Amino acid sequence: MIASNLNQIQRTISECEIAHQRTPASVQLLAVSKKKPIELILEAIAAGQTSFGENYADEGVAKIQALNEHQLEWHYIGHIQSNKTRLISSHYDWVQGVDRLKIAERLALHRPDNLAPLNICLQLNIDGEETKSGCTKEQLPELAEFVAKQQNLRLRGIMAIPAPEQNQQAQRQVFATIHQVYQALQQRHSTIDTLSMGMTGDMAAAIAEGSTMVRIGTAIFGSRD
Question: With 80 as the cut, is the pLDDT of residue 40 above it?
């Protein structure tokens, strides 16, 4: 089942790249494996998937340690509690969810010197939703400047989770705005190459508007309990 799901998603990504004149294989698939057992992740690995995303620090670290014999790339996604920064910085390869200076400072402080710099995507709250993590467009440049100066961090781009829209046209409008913010930031920082936006329900619209990484969970692993 997992292999079939992955193949279908990769076909969809390829079709979207062609339809919107994107470079072939320019959109990376990140498999979001939170709350899913290691057995299912192993199925995904057997099918060729190597990048996985987790939303819960401790759960993710347990999986990272259990699967350390495989050459995998692990992303921490979402809100970061201050008391989890050491754990996250010591084990993950990417963090998609840095939205304030305090967290960036702590991630830089706790990143072990023997590891490669921690890849950082700043989380943008494009809708200004009070219940959602993320910085505003106005806060983004200062945060990016700080991250770019840290030796143990590497500024890679933006992650966003816009409010759900019912039709693709509305989805594309929001994603287009995020892409504009991304391009403006890219002009100032040469390391930026990642625009992480699009999930199971809006992946096609995200790719149409410039996403370089889609985060897919349900369509790969099934619904979460």
Answer: yes
Q: Which of 71, 67, 64, 122 is nearest to 90 (CA)?
A: 64
Contacts (Cβ under 8 Å, ≥6 apart) of 146: 101, 104, 105
Give the gyration radius of the chain's Cα atoms.
17
Q: What is the CATH number of the domain that holds 216?
A: 3.20.20.10
Q: Percentage helix, strand, coil, to 5, in the chain?
A: 40, 20, 40
Question: Rounded distance, CA 198 to CA 162, Å?
Answer: 9
Residue 103, token pair as written in the block:
């967290």
Phi (first) and psi of residue 11, to 5 degrees: -65, -40
Domain of 28, in residue numbers: 2-221
Residue 99 DSSP SS3:
coil
Side-chain half-sphere exposure of 47, counting CA atoms within 13 A: 22
What is the distance, to the nearest Å, from the Cα of residue 96 to the centroid of all Cα atoms in its chain?
5
pLDDT in tens, 132-146: 789 999 999 999 999
130 HSE (CA, 13 A, CB side): 0
Count of C-beta atoms within a 10 Å radius of residue 139: 16
pTM (two decimals): 0.96
The pLDDT tens digits of the residues spanning 70-82 come to 999 999 998 999 9
Rounded to whole angstroms, the Cα distance separating 225 from 220 reads: 14
The count of domains in the chain is 1
Measured CA to CA, the distance from residue 183 to residue 198 in angstroms comes to 17
